[in-house]
Amino acid sequence: MAHQPSLISLQWFSILLACISLFSWTIFAVSPDAPLTLDYYKSTCPTVFEIVRKEMECEVNSDPRNAALVLRLHFHDCFVQGCDGSVLLDDTISLQGEKKASANVNSLKGFEIIDRIKNKLESECPGTVSCADILTVAARDAVILVGGPYWDVPVGRKDSKTANYDLVRENIPTANEGLLSIIAKFLYQGLSVTDMVALAGAHTIGMARCENFRARIYGDFGATDSYLRNLKSICPAAISSSGENNATAMDNVTPNLFDNSFYHTLLRGEGLLSSDQEMYSNVFGIETKKLVRKYADDPLAFFNQFSDSMVKLSNITNSDSIVNGEVRKICRFVNT
Fold it and tell me: Deepest of 31, 139, 179, 259, by most Cβ within 10 A of its Cβ?
């Protein structure tokens, strides 16, 4: 018989998480002195929000999957050095960027979208709007354009002059990572367990690559026969260079619509990524299981929490870039 943790041990675990969450938030919460305001560009670039929205409309209309690409870029940016545009930097002789780190190299796309928005803004308001702000606003608009909720985006971020290749490996959650490890990564950023479950709902419009769900579908995946056969046709059991980048939607019901369908996949045991399914199936996921059920039952509760959690995510700041940052002329390179 498999060992089951006692009720006492689970209670102590819940208390420990609460303490860690409080401690983490105290240390890593955005500084009240961070110069982020809704009207930061009111006099210097009053059309910034309109320009970003129009460009994102074009991108999402051309391919709805572009919404997920931009949203993922924003998440990966904020989890490394805060929301400072560091994820956008290309490698140079003097700088090792974050794009080629293992968690990013085959997962992140959409950099050209941010380039195009930046070019428009440079024509309208030269040297004014940071790449970090562009990415943050574009992520919000991406969600809205595929049916998701609205939230206000305070702006005024500066672009980092550095990147951190090693922090990508340390900070970005991975597809086969355990629940407790992922919770710890969110707590480190000042984000709660509730934030984690709500932000995972972004996978309702996301795609996953074969190498990230192979172990899941050839393991204890509880999907219907037809769905499982389809997944195995996309992702063969044998590792091959031609199959690793084959991708499929994490929400196979409404893949291009931002809704709460993702949580229903978890209730059915059909979460494509092991890390997602663990929020509902892990024995330690007492709180996460309740939240999954809540968001599956109440789409408005999911939308409200997702908006609140995205504000918290977007307000993770890089104290160094606040003081020493810049507004890059080209998002891929530090100004010379």
Answer: 139
